[in-house]
Design brief:
127 residues; two-stranded antiparallel sheet; 59% helix; 3 helices; elongated
Amino acid sequence: MNQYLEHEHHEPDAWHRHLSAEGMPQAEHGARVNPFVVGGALGIIGLATVGTIVAVALYFNSYSDRLKIERQEGPAAARMVSQDQRLAKLEWENALQAYSWIDTEAGTVGIPIDRAFELVMEQYGTE
């Protein structure tokens, strides 16, 4: 028994036959490779790959750091900041709505903002 397949050689068809009227055959494409073009293309691909890897690593590190902080401090830290902001806003609103001493030695008094608007309108509204 023969372990190799028998190979039959047929006559080439018309597509493989070339006539002298066709002229000289064309040179094969890519027979001469410009190493600078190939090197430049590989360099660009390499830089793009390294840039992508660095960008993904930076994103991952920032994301994991934020996640660690959130897990360690918990969402209560964010609520505490907003609670501090709410307390500060409440203090500012109370200061705007109440009478207070600005400078006791000079006799300067702070008045509620609504009353200040009324006084300004009375003063400049008649002119």
